[in-house]
Amino acid sequence: MYKLRTEKIKQIFDSISKEYDFLNRILTFGTDFKNKKEIAKLVKEKNPSKVLDIATGTADIPIILSEIYDCEITGVDISEKMISEGRKKVKSKNLYKQINLDIGNAERLKYNCNYFDVITICFGVRNFEYLERSLNEAYRVLKNSGILIIYETSKPENIIIRFLYYIFSTLFIPLMGLLFSKKPGAYFYLQISSKVFPSGRNFLKILSNVGFYDFEIREKLFGTLSIYVAKK
What is the 3-state secondary structure of 147-185? Predict the structure, then answer.
């Protein structure tokens, strides 16, 4: 699988932190926020007191989850500039008492074992240098019977839609990078990482190897995006 070193991934996301939210909306055809609201509903159903969002980026998920009453929300990301953008959003919404954003590596989380009720990871797992190692860390800090929710790009099973998605990811994603980013090379990486990520049932096998079970896949945007739900 095509993988970059963690330091390189950090540099890529530092370089696109300013336009990241805007381009996410474009590349998901405006469905991104709706899908994240669905994730928030799934989290809220668990009535959690502690939630961790890994690869939190600019803190979209923590901000949406702030609606949950009496819940401690933590976001962690390797990119200092993404965290900086997230902190600006948190401050502007006066949510700094509910949300804590940390700089950190998914492979070496600083949190105690069995600490969080729910863990979310949105558009993050395909960028982990060592996927199983990072998922093992998520498993470690998640409470027994806790829930892991992952939102990620995926390859559609329908052959026609898969072909159209291949054209889209090959041409449209790099084009958006050229038009709207000062670092278009970053979007070449995002396009490649989407293609090679072991989505669908292949990803469930990896989650199962880590120890997760009781899986659910919710396909979005004709199967080009998926929400995975798993239990510890």
Answer: EEEEEEECCCCCHHHHHHHHHHHHHHHHHHHHHHCCCCH
8-state DSSP, 48: -
Residue 200's φ and ψ, nearest 5 degrees, are 65, -140
Q: Which CATH architecture has domain 6-162+198-231?
A: 3-Layer(aba) Sandwich (3.40)
Angle at 71 between CA 225 and CA 136, to 5 degrees: 55
Q: Tell me: the pLDDT tens digits for 92-102? A: 999 999 999 99
pLDDT, position 2: 47
CA distance 173 to 159: 20
Our separate counts of H helices and E strands in the chain read 10, 7
Alpha helices in 16-59 (DSSP H): 20-27, 32-45
> In this structure, are residues 218 and 226 in contact, taking their beta carbons and an 8 Å threshold?
yes
